[in-house]
Design goal:
Elements: E1 2-6, H1 9-20, E2 27-32, H2 35-44, E3 48-51, H3 57-68, H4 76-94, H5 106-116, H6 121-128, H7 132-145, H8 151-160
Parallel strand pairs: 1-2, 2-3
């Protein structure tokens, strides 16, 4: 947990150091929380955000317990703004490039689903009316971009991440 006046460069450095030193569930209590602080906290992987004026003992305990359980806590007004920013990111940045938050295009997700169902490359190509080379390129792109070892690793990753 870090208590600070604002999520400035010093606080961000401290949070990153805590994250690197195996603090997997971070909570920030700050006097000032704005959109920039929210985005910085999300990028670092903070699980709980609480304004100092709202940090009653009960609320603080609830926030820490939620973080320990892997849940997130964000003030409601910031949550609304975060959702708006996520939507804007999807519409303006990811969708024009054919991507979703999953990191996979629809095309890639379809190929991984078929791989997970046990189809080999030629069967996937037949089912999707593509060439085998296209299917191989898609699988190669996925494994390279996500730094995975092979198609089995790609399927396991996608299943664990809830992408397929």
């Amino acid at each position: 947990m870090i208590v600070t006046d604002e999520v400035d460069e010093d606080a961000i450095r401290t949070l990153r150091a805590m994250q690197r030193s195996s603090c997997s569930r971070l909570v920030v209590v700050a006097t000032k929380l704005d959109d920039a602080a929210l985005l910085a906290a999300v990028e670092i992987g903070v699980h709980g955000l609480l304004r100092r004026r709202e940090a009653s003992p009960e609320r603080l305990v609830a926030t820490v317990q939620a973080a320990a359980a892997g849940d997130g806590t964000v003030p409601p007004d910031l949550l609304g703004r975060l959702l708006a920013q996520v939507g804007r990111l999807q519409r303006e940045v990811l969708s024009p490039r054919g991507l979703a938050f999953s990191g996979l295009t629809d095309r890639e997700a379809n190929v991984l689903r078929l791989v997970a169902d046990g189809y080999d490359t030629s069967e996937i190509a037949d089912q999707l009316a593509w060439s085998e080379r296209t299917v191989k390129n898609i699988i190669h792109d996925i494994t390279t971009r996500l730094q995975l070892r092979n198609r089995s690793h790609a399927v396991a990753y996608a299943v664990r991440a809830g992408l397929i």
